[in-house]
# Entry
Amino acid sequence: MSKILCNRCASPAGPLDWRCDDCGGSLDLVELPPFDPDRIDRNDFSLWRYRAMLPVEQRFSLGEGMTPLVPVELDGARFQAKLEYLNPTGSFKDRGTATLLNHLAACGATEVIDNSSGNAGASLAAYAGAAGMSATVFVPAATAVENKKRLIRSFGGRIIESRNYLTDVYAAAQKTTYASHAWSPYFALGQQTAAWETWEQLGRAPDAVATPVGHGGLFLGFYRGFKALHDAGLIERPPRMIALQSAGVDPIVRGWEAKLDAPPPLEPGPSVADGILVDAPVRGPEILRALYETDGFALRLNDGAILAAQERLRKRGLMIEPTSAVTAAALPQISQLIGAEATLVIAFTGSGLKSIGDPA
# Structure
């Protein structure tokens, strides 16, 4: 059986804990089942094809995972696009929500809460409904996108708007189950499946993987998933990890540039990339460590470049939201740093259908 330990002080934690009671550090599952290609359920075309490697009892699914990997050429650069926005609620968050909510259902939870600017909240509301739970989402009063709030409500989720939404959700977490996409080790668990799918789809590991980074769930999922493949002797080395942020909120970029062990504090600014407006990533030290260990790098993009890349991709038939477009906006810098012949996988994390009609 896998165990849950604090990343900071190594104290053990319980199945419903979301952070360390002793020091407040983040938690992770340890002693996970090793990756075994012979145990892939090749008749299952969801992330549950890897159920043998996931220490979670599957009780329900909305068909999350097994998103397409599509070759794309943009502005003279070639890459493979992992279309995470084709998950059931339109974002990569469904991978982690599926494993987390299945775990919480097995623990007997009947109501869950989270804090979210949009995508994680919509995913929680949808999966809570599938599990027969009630869901409440705390959203930031100033920055939450209206279309995403409507989506949360349409899935049956209750919304609480707050100017101090982190303080409020932490207080509420003392009384009910906090299904946190930022803190829960079971959410991080599900994100690893994106790496395993990419390995199956390519037939090998790519040279580099680029994702937008807020709390860094998908970024760390790719890193940990490819590390599991390396530990199993299936790939020579994990790909170089590339973290992309907006110029308005860029703690990981600043930490990487200064070669720090943890992101520095900063005053957040505005950005069109609403999904990554995270000034203090919960797993910031782990993100930076992944960058250093894989010879990766971090880049920041301004709003003009992000919106221009989004428009170019929409004209190519790829309907992504602005947060996803930070990856494509960085293509010139990425190509220069990894070389034109390198195999690059870019994750398009959220559907642009959610932002149609919203003011830029």
